């Protein structure tokens, strides 16, 4: 069962962790490359702020972004700002999201995200939690997949396994963590079943496109090539 209020609290805690870590940087560090190809740390921080505002739009019944081009332009515009400006923007946009999430609402309603994707409103806090946690890792400042809260890691593996379930480019795949948890995904492509096993952090890294899967154990075929998120 989804508890959106609990997820909102988790978002706030994750945001505070990120802000504390980023505050230890300097202006030069913000201009350095992140772990995301073509993006500096400033791009990642600008994206986090604009994503918070975009999810406020969704919660309040407006389009998530004016357009894909406008989204990209806003990130590019804000990426080169000094550290203090980034910190203020991430903090204030996070507060706007928190306030929108605290407003009385029908959390069972269906909302529209980008590119026609729909979801239940109650899942938006978890989607924001994903943004904050994974992009904190993407900054490359000492926060790793192994540092993510265990509950978050398990839920995000579940989410991504469901996202790739039946995908036409992914063969039937069993995902196993070293603690014995098993999930299935794929099934739309020829081949398989393939068994993929590893730590929860390594499985999440592969599913989320943050690791190449080299640390995983694969049986029954090659490690599937996953489509981009």
Compile the SSE list and pairings:
Elements: H1 4-22, H2 27-30, H3 41-59, H4 68-78, H5 83-102, E1 110-112, E2 118-120, H6 124-138, H7 150-164, E3 173-177, E4 182-185, E5 194-198, H8 200-207, E6 217-219
Parallel strand pairs: 3-5
Antiparallel strand pairs: 1-2, 3-4, 5-6
Helix pairs in contact: 1-5, 1-6, 3-4, 3-5, 3-6, 7-8
Alpha plus pi helix count: 8
Give the amount of beta strand, in percent.
5-15%
Determine Rg (CA atoms, Å).
18 Å
Main sheet, how many strands, which sense, barrel? 4 strands, mixed
- The low-confidence parts are none
Distance between the termini: 25 Å
Q: How would you spell out the order of helices and strands? A: HHHHHEEHHEEEHE
**How many extended strands?**
6
Report the average pLDDT across residues: 96
Biggest sheet strand order reads 4-3-5-6
Class from secondary-structure proportions? alpha+beta
Question: Judging from the principal axes of the Cα atoms, what is the shape?
Answer: globular
Percent helix, as a range, is 40-55%
